[in-house]
Design a protein that fits this description.
One of its GO terms (molecular function) is acireductone dioxygenase [iron(II)-requiring] activity. Monomer. This protein is an alpha+beta fold and about 180 residues long. The chain has helices at about 20-30, 50-55, 60-70, 85-90, and strands at about 5-10, 15-20, 35-40, 70-80, 95, 100-115, 120-125, 130-135, 140-145, 150-155, 165. The strands form 2 sheets. Strands 1, 2, 3, 4, 6, 7, 8, 9 and 10 form a 9-stranded antiparallel beta sheet that branches. It has a two-stranded antiparallel ribbon with strand order 5-11. The two termini are about 15 Å apart.
């Protein structure tokens, strides 16, 4: 279930807010400049390729491109037996930033985006149907969990510029990791 937990950055043991209400989630994230939407999901075969996924969501993708100027789009799929799952998981577990927006629409599965301001941490569990757009420069980390399963559409202004710049702060190590419901 889509869920937002908000923590004091100095107190990772207990959230200040824990909500599954999409309107409340969108409102809290909008205050940060983060876009959160829920799109209707489409029935797709489990082995749908990139072209099939992009075709199914072409109207929504076109709307985002027109609205925000994204230039390219692709699909990433992770499964529990992916040979590089541990390396890919650890790659984004530490706090980092990007020089452009990080835009993801979850076609299936789930992943935990954790966003940080100076004194507050926002742990956003995204599931199928959720769109999140983390603004350029926002400190965050992403956890796909130890048994990742998701398919996500990614939009880029410049995919070559989408490189994580790690902050060196260990704050991500103090907050709960993602424990998928299906694990």
């Amino acid at each position: 279930m889509t869920q937002l937990r908000i923590y004091d950055a100095a107190a990772p043991e207990a959230p200040l807010l824990d909500t599954t209400n999409p309107g409340e989630i969108a409102s809290k994230l909008r205050d940060l400049g983060v876009r959160f939407e829920q799109w209707g999901t489409r029935d797709l075969p489990a082995d749908a390729d990139q072209d099939a996924v992009l075709s199914a969501y072409a109207p929504e993708i076109g709307g985002l491109k027109a609205d925000k100027g994204y230039q390219s789009v692709d699909v990433i799929r992770m499964v529990p037996d992916h040979p590089e799952k541990d390396a890919l998981r650890s790659k984004f577990l530490s706090e980092h930033r990007h020089s452009e927006d990080e835009v993801r629409f979850f076609v299936e599965g789930e992943g935990l985006f954790t966003l940080r301001t100076d004194d507050t941490v926002y742990a956003m569990l995204c599931e199928a149907g959720d769109l999140i757009s983390v603004p350029a420069g926002m400190r965050h980390w992403f956890d796909m969990g130890p048994t990742p399963r998701f398919t996500a559409i990614r939009l880029f202004t410049n995919p070559d510029g989408w490189v994580a710049k790690f902050t060196g702060d260990t704050i991500a190590d103090r907050f709960p990791r993602h424990a998928p419901a299906a694990a």
